[in-house]
Amino acid sequence: MCRFLIGALAFSLMMALTLASVQGDDTKGEPKKVPPALAQMLSGSAENFIKRFDRNKDGYLSKNELPPRLAPLFDKFDLNGDDKLDKKEVEEMLQILRERFGLAGDKSSKTAPTGDAKQVERMIDNLLERMDTNKDGKISREEAKGPLANNFDRLDKNMDGYLDRSELRPAAQRMLAAQANGKGKREAQVRTGDVQQPDFDALDNDADGRLTRAELRGTPFADLFDEIDTNKDGKIDRKEFEAYLRKQAEKK
């Protein structure tokens, strides 16, 4: 019993150090000293982490199953908002903690990403090119636009007020998935001629809140670009797009 209490206190202390470091440390970019036991826990797989704390054995971690000192971070890592952490979300949580404590290891020797991974990295490059105005390699809350601004707190896992490449990666993956889904929708619209219920976000491939000629290429709206772009700035924002749709609906 005594041994159990000592172990529990030690674990609580480690979690306190973890939470304080992730949430409130003003020292940026510097790895923190971490007890060996915590380092061992963070180096394990997401599957083993779930098995360790999954009290109801459903394969997920609820907020009350997380160690108390990690519970306040739950919402940051519950990316799909389903009130539980799956294997992928736990892996992202562990990765952030590893990076925060300097336990991620040297990634410079890894081979370049291929296939879908390359597309994700290109999307991240695109986001940084468009929004990283001071060119520091990350996007601040003030620089973020569109979906990144709307979901900033959820994406900013280490709560430092910036989105770095690791934090932008899940957002880029979702944007690419929406882009692929939008492509299918656009192809269906072309076949059926149905332009009454277009999806602005699906058309907005780079998620900057504006539609370019390139983004509308191959859609029913490509030849209507100049008509929709009422302020003639070379881009169509959501208001212009919706105004055009309302105008078309009134004609019917």
Short synopsis of the structure:
This protein is mainly alpha-helical. The protein is 54% helix and 3% strand.
What are the key terms here?
two-stranded antiparallel sheet; Recoverin, domain 1; 3 domains; 252 residues; 3% strand; two-stranded antiparallel ribbon; mainly alpha
The amount of helix comes to: 40-55%
Q: Uncertain segments of ≥5 residues (pLDDT<50)? A: 1-14, 21-31, 106-115, 188-196
**Total of helices:** 13
Gross morphology is elongated
| Total domain units | 3
Return Rg in Å: 22 Å
Strand pairing plus helix content: what structural class?
mainly alpha
Main sheet: which strands, in order across?
1-2
- N-to-C terminal Cα separation, in Å? 77 Å
Which H/E pattern describes the elements? HHHHHHEHHEHHEHHEH
Q: Count of DSSP E strands?
A: 4
CATH C-level of the largest domain: Mainly Alpha
Strand content: under 5%
CATH homology-level superfamily of the largest domain: EF-hand
Sheet bearing the most strands, described?
2 strands, antiparallel
Report the CATH architecture of the largest domain.
Answer: Orthogonal Bundle
**CATH level 3 topology of the largest domain:** Recoverin, domain 1
Chain-averaged pLDDT: 74
